[in-house]
Amino acid sequence: MNGIALYGGSFDPPHLGHEAVVKALEKLDFIKKVIIMPTFLNPFKETFTAPAELRLKWLKCIFADDEKVQISSFEVEKKRKVPAVETVKAMLQKYDPIYFVIGADNLASLHKWYRYDELKELVTFIVASRNDIEIPPNFLKLQIGVDIASSDLRDNIDISKLPKKCAQEIAHYYKEHNAKQN
After folding, report:
1. pLDDT tens digits, one per residue of 5-47
2. Which residue has the higher pLDDT, 165 or 43?
3. How many angstroms separate the Cα of 15 from the Cα of each of 9, 11, 32, 115, 125?
4. Which CATH superfamily is domain 3-149 in?
5. pLDDT in the model for residue 134
6. Which residues share a beta bridge with 103?
7. Sign of CA pseudo-dihedral 64, 69, 74, 76
8. Which of 16, 119, 25, 29 has its CA nearest to residue 69?
9. Which residues form the Cytidyltransferase-like domain (predicted)?
10. Are 86 and 122 in contact (CB under 8 A)?
11. Helices (H), 9-133
């Protein structure tokens, strides 16, 4: 049964690691569409460097020519922190099954997610590998071979780690922001 991959995140900034996850998802024969869902506010963070509307714009630019990818503004339009379970329930009205994509770095805190026990009954998790983090057998593993952290890029922007389509604009934004902070 073909399903959708729901790939949520901060994407602050979007980088080649995010792009690699999407490309790997597209190769899975049971995924008919990848829905990228930037958060308005991450439930575990208080602020972002780039505003939600700008991160949404960058994602639309990066994946504009990819027919299997849809960029969703669902969480951005809420203008608040949206728990994953709320997003999944809304998406289930249109799509089933849903494969919920997370980075391996999220595994350690997954049990802290709002209504995690309910969420895990609604989706199948796909975990994008990162470093040497072990992925439990009850999760599908997505090998991507790219290890880039948005948090590292925000402070020290490296254009070679950004998607080519919007690299200049993204790099300019973070350089300007960092200059104002110093």
Report:
1. 999 999 999 999 999 999 999 999 999 999 999 999 887 777 7
2. 165
3. 12, 8, 23, 29, 22
4. HUPs (3.40.50.620)
5. 87
6. 128
7. negative
8. 25
9. 6-155
10. no
11. 16-26, 52-62, 74-78, 84-92, 116-122
